C-alpha cells in the first residue's frame, strides 16, 4: 500500500513539474536553448542574465522553454552545476531542473544531437525554435566553444552531422544564433535543410546577447513567422541602444525557403571571380575590395581575423563592370526580408568567408564545406597547397637596355601576385630615410613576369602641394590612389579628424602620358568600433586639410609627416591633382610585390641620380618610358 501511495505521489509530482512544459505534447510551441556558457558565463555571468530575462517573459502554458546548460567552468547563478550537463524547464517564471547528465563537450555533434533527440521526443509541439547560445566564430570556426574542453567548437560540418543524426520529424520554425558572425552564406547552406527561418548576425553580438524576454513573448504570439522574426530583431536592436552598443550591431532575419536561389547567385559571382582570376591586375582590385568592404568580428578575441565579409558589399566593390549585381541583390533581398543595424552600416545581411588573413588549415577546412563549386575551385587554385615562398624574384634588380630599373618574378608566382608597385625614397645627410610615395606606375609584362620602372622624376600634388600617395587598385580603365589627411572642419565631416583623400588616374590614349588625374573626394576612416564608411564625401571650399607629405623611418619606426593646414577652395574635378617634379638630386627606388595573403617582398634597391632639374621637368615633362634619372648603384634592400 505504501509503495502504491509512493508511486501515485511520484506521478502527481511529475505532472506538476512537467504539466506546463509539454511532457505529453500539450503545448503548441517549444523553444530549445542549447546554452554553452563558456567564459561568457564564467567571467561575466551572461548566460545567467539571459535566463533571468526568460523568467520575466509573459508567456502562458502553450509554450515550452527548455534549456540545456554546460560548457562553462563556473556558473554564477541559478545553482547550475558546472561539472555536468543539465536540462531545465521554465514554468510560471521559475527554472525547474529536469535532469542532470554526465559532463560532455558541447562543442561535439553528439552532445547537440542528444539534446535535440530528447527535446523533440519529450516536447511534441507543432512549432519549435532552436537557439544556439555562446561565442560564434563565423563560417570557418563555428559556434559553441566549450570552456571545459579547450574551447572546442561545433564546426558547420558538425552542426550538419548533429542535425542529421537527430532525425528531425519536421523542420524547425526558427534556428536562432545568439552568437557572433553566423549570418553567413555558409551557415545558410547548412540550415536550409533543417529550418524555415534563421536569425543571426553578420557582426559580433554585444555581451548582453539577444533579448530573451522578447524572444519568448514573440514566439508565443499568434503572429506570422516573419512578423515574429522582425519583433525579435527589433528587440535586439532596442537592447543594444539601451546599452550604447548599437553602433556596430546588426541582426538578419533569413527566409531559408529562398536559400537555394541565393546560393545559385553566389555561385554565379564566384564563377565570374574564377574567370577573372587569370587577368592582369585582378587581385589588385580584389584586394582593394577586401580592404574597403564591410568586414566583421575584428574586435572580439574569439573572432579576430574572422575573414567574414559582406557578400553584396564585397562583390559590388570588386567589379564596377562585367558582373551584374542586380540578380545577386535581388536574391539577397528575398532571402533577407528584414535586417536591423544602426543605420551607419552598408551590410546587406549575409556575409561569406574570404581569406583576407591567411591560415592554410582554416582554408582547407572551409573547402570541405563545398558551399559553391566555383568558389571551392577558386580557393583550391589560389589558397591551397601554397608554396613556402609564393612570390620568388628571379632577377632582384638590374638595369634594362633603356636604362630603367628592372626585376622579374618566377612565372609560377603569377597565381599568388596581388600587387606590384614601387617605393620611392630619399636619404638625408643624417641617414634618415624619407618615404615619398608608393605607386604602381610601372611597366608590367605579365606574360614574362618582367617589371620595369617608369620613373619620370615626379610625385603627385593636390593644389600644388606635394603629397604622399598610395596606390589602391589598378584596372584597365583607371588607377585609384589615396593620401591620408587631417581635417579641420567639424561642420562638414561630423568631428572626423583623420581621413583619406581619394583620387584616380583615368586612362586616355589621346592625352599626354595616356590619361589624366581626377578628384573623387574624402573618405572617412573607420569609426571607434572599426566600422568602415564607404561613402566618398565631396570636398567643400572652406574645408581645411593637412596632407601627409611623407613618412620618415627613424629608429625602426615609420612616422607620418603632415604639412600645414590650408583651405581647399573651389574644387576642380580634373585640374587639382597634378604631377610635381622632384627637387632633389638622388633617390632610392625599390619594387614591392604583395601576395594574395598580404605578405610583402622587396627587390634590391636602386640609387637614381637625377638627370633633370625641377625647373626643366616643370617646363618639359617627360613622356612615359623616359627615365628621369641614371641608376648609379644597385644593392640589397633592408626594410627598416
Helix share, percent: 25-40%
Biggest β-sheet description: 13 strands, antiparallel
Counted by DSSP, the helix tally is 16
Provide the structure class. alpha+beta
Mean pLDDT, as a whole number?
88
Strand content: 25-35%
Low-confidence stretches: 1-25, 299-304
Basic shape: elongated
Find the count of extended strands (DSSP E, 2+ residues).
34
List keywords for this structure.
640 residues, alpha+beta, 13-stranded antiparallel β-sheet, 26% helix, disordered N terminus
Structure, described:
Strand 23 and strand 24 form a beta hairpin. The relative contact order is 0.08. Strands 17, 18, 23, 24, 25, 26, 27, 28, 29, 30, 32, 33 and 34 form a 13-stranded antiparallel sheet that branches. The protein has a nine-stranded mixed sheet with strand order 4-3-2-1-5-8-9-10-13, sandwiched between helices. Strands 15-16-20-19 form a four-stranded antiparallel sheet, with no helix packed on it. The protein has 640 residues and is of the alpha+beta class. Mean pLDDT is 88; it is low at 1-25 and 299-304.
Map the helices and strands:
Elements: H1 2-18, E1 29-36, H2 38-44, H3 46-55, E2 63-70, E3 84-91, E4 94-102, H4 109-122, E5 127-133, E6 143-146, E7 152-154, H5 156-165, E8 172-178, H6 185-191, E9 195-200, H7 212-220, H8 225-242, E10 250-255, H9 259-276, H10 282-292, E11 295-296, E12 308-310, H11 311-318, H12 326-335, E13 338-341, E14 351-353, H13 360-367, H14 373-383, E15 393-399, E16 405-409, E17 417-427, E18 433-439, E19 442-445, E20 450-453, E21 458-462, E22 465-466, E23 470-474, E24 478-488, H15 490-493, E25 498-507, E26 515-524, E27 536-537, E28 544-554, E29 557-562, E30 566-567, E31 577-581, E32 586-595, E33 600-610, H16 614-619, E34 629-635
Parallel strand pairs: 1-2, 1-5, 5-8, 8-9
Antiparallel strand pairs: 2-3, 3-4, 6-7, 9-10, 10-13, 11-12, 12-14, 15-16, 16-20, 17-18, 17-32, 18-28, 19-20, 21-22, 21-31, 23-24, 24-25, 24-28, 25-26, 26-27, 28-29, 28-30, 32-33, 33-34
Amino acid at each position: 500500500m505504501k509503495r502504491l501511495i509512493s508511486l501515485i505521489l511520484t506521478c502527481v509530482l511529475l505532472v506538476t513539474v512537467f504539466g506546463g512544459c509539454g511532457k505529453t505534447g500539450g503545448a503548441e510551441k517549444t523553444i530549445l536553448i542549447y546554452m554553452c556558457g563558456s567564459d561568457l558565463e564564467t567571467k561575466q555571468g551572461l548566460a545567467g542574465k539571459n535566463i533571468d530575462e526568460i523568467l520575466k517573459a509573459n508567456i502562458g502554458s502553450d509554450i515550452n522553454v527548455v534549456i540545456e546548460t554546460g560548457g562553462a567552468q563556473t556558473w554564477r547563478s541559478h545553482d547550475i552545476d558546472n561539472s555536468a550537463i543539465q536540462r531545465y524547464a521554465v514554468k510560471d517564471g521559475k527554472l525547474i531542473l529536469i535532469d542532470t547528465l554526465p559532463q560532455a563537450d558541447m562543442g561535439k555533434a553528439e552532445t547537440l544531437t542528444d539534446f535535440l533527440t530528447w527535446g523533440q521526443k519529450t516536447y511534441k509541439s507543432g512549432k519549435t525554435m532552436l537557439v544556439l547560445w555562446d561565442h560564434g566564430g563565423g563560417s570557418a570556426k563555428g559556434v559553441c566553444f566549450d570552456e571545459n574542453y579547450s574551447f572546442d567548437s561545433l564546426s558547420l560540418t558538425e552542426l550538419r552531422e548533429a542535425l542529421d543524426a537527430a532525425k528531425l520529424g519536421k523542420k524547425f520554425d526558427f534556428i536562432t544564433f545568439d552568437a557572433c558572425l553566423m549570418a553567413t552564406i555558409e551557415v545558410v547552406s547548412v540550415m536550409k535543410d533543417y529550418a524555415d527561418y534563421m536569425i543571426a548576425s553578420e557582426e559580433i553580438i554585444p555581451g548582453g546577447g539577444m533579448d530573451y524576454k522578447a524572444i519568448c513573448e514573440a514566439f508565443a504570439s499568434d503572429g506570422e513567422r516573419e512578423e515574429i522574426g522582425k519583433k525579435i530583431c527589433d528587440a535586439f536592436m532596442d537592447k543594444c541602444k539601451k546599452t550604447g552598443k548599437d553602433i556596430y550591431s546588426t541582426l538578419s532575419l533569413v527566409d531559408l525557403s529562398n536559400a537555394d536561389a541565393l546560393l545559385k547567385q553566389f555561385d554565379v559571382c564566384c564563377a565570374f571571380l574564377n574567370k577573372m582570376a587569370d587577368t592582369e591586375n585582378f587581385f589588385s582590385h580584389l584586394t582593394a575590395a577586401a580592404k574597403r568592404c564591410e568586414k566583421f568580428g575584428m574586435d572580439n578575441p574569439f573572432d579576430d581575423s574572422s575573414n567574414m565579409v559582406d557578400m553584396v558589399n564585397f562583390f559590388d566593390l570588386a567589379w564596377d563592370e562585367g558582373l551584374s549585381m542586380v540578380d545577386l541583390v535581388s536574391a539577397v533581398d528575398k532571402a533577407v526580408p528584414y535586417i536591423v543595424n544602426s543605420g551607419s552600416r552598408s551590410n546587406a545581411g549575409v556575409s561569406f568567408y574570404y581569406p583576407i588573413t591567411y591560415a592554410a588549415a582554416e582554408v582547407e577546412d572551409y573547402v570541405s564545406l563545398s558551399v559553391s563549386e566555383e568558389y571551392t575551385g577558386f580557393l583550391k587554385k589560389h589558397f591551397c597547397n601554397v608554396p613556402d615562398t609564393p612570390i620568388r624574384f628571379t632577377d632582384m634588380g638590374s638595369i634594362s637596355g633603356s636604362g630603367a630599373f628592372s626585376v622579374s618574378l618566377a612565372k609560377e608566382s603569377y597565381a599568388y601576385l596581388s600587387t606590384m608597385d614601387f617605393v620611392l625614397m630619399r636619404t638625408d645627410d643624417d641617414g634618415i630615410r624619407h618615404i615619398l610615395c608608393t605607386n604602381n606606375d610601372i611597366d608590367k609584362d605579365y606574360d614574362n613576369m618582367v617589371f620595369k620602372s617608369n620613373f619620370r622624376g615626379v610625385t603627385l600634388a593636390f593644389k600644388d602641394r606635394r603629397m604622399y600617395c598610395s596606390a589602391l587598385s589598378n584596372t584597365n580603365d583607371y588607377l585609384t590612389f589615396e593620401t591620408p589627411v587631417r581635417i579641420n572642419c567639424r561642420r562638414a565631416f561630423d568631428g572626423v579628424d583623420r581621413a583619406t583623400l581619394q583620387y584616380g588616374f583615368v586612362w586616355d590614349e589621346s592625352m599626354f602620358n595616356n590619361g589624366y588625374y581626377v578628384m573623387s573626394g574624402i573618405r572617412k576612416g573607420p569609426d571607434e568600433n572599426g566600422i568602415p564608411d564607404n561613402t566618398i564625401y565631396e570636398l567643400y571650399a572652406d574645408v581645411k586639410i593637412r596632407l601627409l607629405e611623407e613618412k620618415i623611418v627613424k629608429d625602426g619606426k615609420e612616422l607620418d609627416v603632415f604639412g600645414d593646414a590650408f583651405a581647399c577652395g573651389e574644387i576642380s574635378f580634373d585640374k587639382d591633382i597634378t604631377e610635381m617634379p622632384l627637387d632633389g638630386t638622388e633617390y632610392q627606388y625599390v619594387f614591392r610585390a604583395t601576395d594574395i595573403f598580404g605578405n610583402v617582398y622587396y627587390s634590391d634597391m636602386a640609387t637614381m641620380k637625377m638627370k633633370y632639374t625641377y625647373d626643366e621637368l616643370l617646363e618639359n615633362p617627360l613622356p612615359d618610358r623616359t627615365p628621369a634619372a641614371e641608376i648609379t648603384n644597385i644593392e640589397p634592400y633592408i626594410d627598416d
